[in-house]
C-alpha cells in the first residue's frame, strides 16, 4: 500500500516537472521568436534602403503616415510599409509628415526617410517677381512655370502685386500664386499707409501706390529711394509737374513690352494720361509693382529741398545727383552729358579695337595647316 502511494507521488511530481519544463520550453521558444522578430524588424527599419540613387519624394498635402508609407513602398523607397508606419511611429520623435518635395539620399533607411519627412525641410518651389516689374511681366513668369497648373488669362490691375518670392507646391494653380501676391500687396499697402508722415500731398493709399511705382522705376539704388520720393513729394507740394521719364515709357508700352531705345522728343511732347511732362499731378494708375521699400520711402520721404535729380554716371548703379534750383540742375545735366559722351566714345573705341582684332585674326594663316 505504501509503495503504491509512493509511486503515485513520484509520478505526480514527475508530471508537474514535465509541465513546468514544457512551459519553460515554450517561453524560451517564444522569446527566441519574439527576439528574432524584433531583430528582423529593426534590421529592416534601420538597414540600408533599396534606392540606388538620390531621388525626390513628394508628400501631398493631407497625407497621413500610413498613406505616405504605402506610396513610399509603391515607388521603391522602402520594402515594407507596415514596418515603416507601425514601428516608425513608436520609435521616432514625430510621426507627423510634412507636405512637400523631399530629397531622399541613395540607400536611405526607413528611419532616415521618416526623419527627413517629419523633421527635414521640403525642397523649395517659388515664383520670384523683381521690384519694378509690371503685371504683364509678372503674369508671364507665372504662366511660364511648368510646375503650376491652370492659366491666368486676364491681367490684374497694375501695381496690385507685391514683388518677392512666393512658395508653392507643384500642382498648385497659377491663380493661387497670383492671389498670394495681390493679398501681400493689399496688406503691405495698408500697413505702410498707417505709418505715413502727416501732411503728405497724397489723399489715399492708391495715390501712395502710384507714386511708389514711379520711385521704383526711377532708381535701382535702394538707399536713394527716400531721396527720390522726397523730390516728387516736394514737386507735388510746390506744385510742379513730376516730369518722370518712366511715366512716358509706360504711356507708350502700357507695361506690356520694353521700349529698348531712348525717348523721342515727340514722345515727351505727346499728351497721354501717363506723361507727367504733360499732366499735372499723378498718372491714373501705377506704372509698375513697387516693392515694400519704395512704399515706405514714399510714406516717409527724406526731408530736403531738392526738386531735381539726374544720373550721376553712365551706369544706373552710380545713382543720382540732386539739386534745389534749375540752374544747379542744368550744371549737373551738363556734367552727366560729358560723362555719357566720354563713355560712348570709350564704347565706340572698344568696338573698333575688337573689330580690328577680328580682322587681323582672319588675316593670319591657319595654324593648323602644315606644309605640303
Automatic annotation (TrEMBL):
- Region span, Disordered: 340-372
Q: Residue ranges under compositional bias (Basic and acidic residues)?
A: 340-351
Per the record, its GO cellular-component terms are: plasma membrane
Q: What class of enzyme is it?
A: lyase
Q: InterPro entries of this UniProt entry?
A: MLTG-like
Q: Which spans are transmembrane here? A: 20-42
Residues of the site described as Important for catalytic activity: 218
Q: Which residues form a coiled coil?
A: none
Q: Where is the composition biased (Acidic residues)?
A: 357-372
Q: What is its EC number?
A: 4.2.2.29
The molecular function terms in GO held by this entry are:
lytic endotransglycosylase activity
Entry keyword annotation includes Magnesium: no
Q: Which reaction does it catalyse?
A: a peptidoglycan chain = a peptidoglycan chain with N-acetyl-1,6-anhydromuramyl-[peptide] at the reducing end + a peptidoglycan chain with N-acetylglucosamine at the non-reducing end
How would you describe this protein's topology in the membrane?
Single-pass membrane protein
Q: What UniProt keywords apply to this chain's record, in alphabetical order?
A: Cell inner membrane, Cell membrane, Cell wall biogenesis/degradation, Lyase, Membrane, Transmembrane, Transmembrane helix
Localization: Cell inner membrane
Which GO BP terms, alphabetically? cell wall organization; peptidoglycan biosynthetic process
Q: Pfam families attached here?
A: YceG (PF02618)
Q: List the PANTHER family hit by this protein, alphabetically.
A: ENDOLYTIC MUREIN TRANSGLYCOSYLASE
State the family it belongs to.
Belongs to the transglycosylase MltG family.
Task: Give the protein's biological function.
Answer: Functions as a peptidoglycan terminase that cleaves nascent peptidoglycan strands endolytically to terminate their elongation.
HAMAP family linked = MltG (MF_02065)
Q: What is this protein called?
A: Endolytic murein transglycosylase
- Organism name: Devosia sediminis
Q: Encoded by which gene?
A: mltG
Amino acid at each position: 500500500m505504501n509503495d503504491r502511494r509512493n509511486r503515485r507521488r513520484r509520478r505526480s511530481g514527475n508530471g508537474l516537472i514535465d509541465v513546468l519544463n514544457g512551459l519553460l520550453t515554450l517561453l524560451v521558444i517564444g522569446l527566441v521568436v519574439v527576439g528574432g522578430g524584433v531583430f528582423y524588424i529593426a534590421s529592416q527599419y534601420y538597414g540600408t534602403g533599396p534606392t540606388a540613387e538620390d531621388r525626390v519624394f513628394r508628400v501631398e498635402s493631407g497625407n497621413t503616415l500610413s498613406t505616405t508609407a504605402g506610396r513610399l513602398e509603391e515607388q521603391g523607397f522602402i520594402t515594407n510599409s507596415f514596418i515603416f508606419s507601425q514601428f516608425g511611429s513608436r520609435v521616432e520623435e514625430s510621426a507627423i509628415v510634412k507636405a512637400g518635395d523631399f530629397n531622399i539620399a541613395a540607400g536611405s533607411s526607413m528611419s532616415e526617410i521618416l526623419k527627413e519627412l517629419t523633421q527635414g525641410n521640403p525642397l523649395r518651389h517659388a515664383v520670384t517677381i523683381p521690384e519694378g516689374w509690371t503685371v504683364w511681366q509678372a503674369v508671364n513668369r507665372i504662366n511660364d512655370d511648368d510646375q503650376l497648373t491652370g492659366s491666368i488669362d486676364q491681367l490684374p490691375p497694375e501695381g496690385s502685386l507685391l514683388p518677392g518670392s512666393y512658395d508653392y507646391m507643384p500642382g498648385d494653380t497659377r491663380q493661387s500664386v497670383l492671389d498670394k501676391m495681390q493679398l501681400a500687396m493689399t496688406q503691405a499697402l495698408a500697413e505702410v499707409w498707417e505709418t505715413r508722415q502727416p501732411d503728405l500731398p497724397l489723399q489715399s493709399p492708391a495715390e501712395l501706390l502710384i507714386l511708389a511705382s514711379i520711385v521704383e522705376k526711377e532708381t535701382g539704388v535702394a538707399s536713394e529711394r527716400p531721396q527720390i520720393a522726397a523730390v516728387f513729394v516736394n514737386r507735388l507740394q510746390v506744385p510742379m509737374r513730376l516730369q518722370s521719364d518712366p511715366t512716358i515709357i509706360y504711356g507708350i508700352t502700357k507695361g506690356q513690352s520694353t521700349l529698348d531705345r531712348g525717348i523721342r522728343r515727340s514722345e515727351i511732347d505727346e499728351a497721354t494720361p501717363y506723361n507727367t511732362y504733360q499732366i499735372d499731378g499723378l498718372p491714373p494708375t501705377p506704372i509698375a509693382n513697387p516693392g515694400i521699400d519704395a512704399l515706405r520711402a514714399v510714406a516717409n520721404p527724406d526731408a530736403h529741398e531738392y526738386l531735381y535729380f539726374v544720373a550721376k554716371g553712365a551706369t544706373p548703379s552710380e545713382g543720382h545727383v540732386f539739386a534745389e534750383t534749375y540752374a544747379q540742375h542744368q550744371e549737373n545735366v551738363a556734367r552727366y552729358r560729358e560723362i555719357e559722351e566720354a563713355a560712348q566714345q570709350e564704347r565706340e573705341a572698344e568696338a573698333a579695337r575688337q573689330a580690328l582684332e577680328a580682322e587681323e585674326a582672319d588675316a593670319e594663316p591657319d595654324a593648323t595647316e602644315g606644309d605640303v
